[in-house]
């Protein structure tokens, strides 16, 4: 993954202009090698100073550096993703609000954030008032105990694992299902209130055939849930993680929202952009 090239491509795209249907998934790698420069006090303080003041305290209260760097990367990416579309000059221009469940929002741009094990992700749409959700799940999240409970997975979803050959594909299937469910919950923006009904989100039909194929890079489908027509898109990302996003389709003749473009960018590029 050449993050610098993806960043330059993103900047060129924005320079040429994007329409109201444009959307993107922005991914920042936060493995120890990629963010080790934040061990330097000067670099950390510089990056911390770029985000709104009220967000800094939450980051500094994290118990260890890894959690601090992940939280900081999340806020930097959030500021960058919204600011690049709204032409913010810095954190002073940021005007985030949150709903009663804590989901942040901003006028004229719709977005959602997710932290994975080694990735921070943002799903951003160049339009306001669009409900969106994103989740990053790792292959290492695979949990056989959860597969034995119908509180999380539907019977049909559990049966999928019996037809999948090899532990690697089972881990990938688990991460895929989990990220789809989480992306929908984050799309709703209602916090933990939906978790007791996870098994009612049944994606067995949509995924029943794809795990007989190796090297699954992208999967996309439409599904009606709660009377809403939704599009789910999933990607295999770096370090054995699956990124899934969810958005409501527009009410028009051609109502399917275009697939988001995926950009893998370096957190240093984000910092340099915000510090310009």
UniProtKB/TrEMBL annotation:
Entry's Gene Ontology BP terms: lysine biosynthetic process via aminoadipic acid
Q: Name one GO molecular function term.
A: magnesium ion binding
Lineage top rank: taxon: Eukaryota
EC identifiers of the protein:
2.7.8.7
One Pfam family matching this protein: ACPS
Q: What class of enzyme is it?
A: transferase
Q: Where is the 4'-phosphopantetheinyl transferase domain?
A: 132-223
The Gene Ontology CC terms held by the record are: cytosol
Q: Sorted alphabetically, which keywords does the UniProt record give?
A: Transferase
Q: Which PANTHER family match?
A: L-AMINOADIPATE-SEMIALDEHYDE DEHYDROGENASE-PHOSPHOPANTETHEINYL TRANSFERASE, PHOSPHOPANTETHEINE TRANSFERASE
Spell out the protein name for this chain. Answer: holo-[acyl-carrier-protein] synthase
What gene is this protein a product of?
A: TPHA0C03550
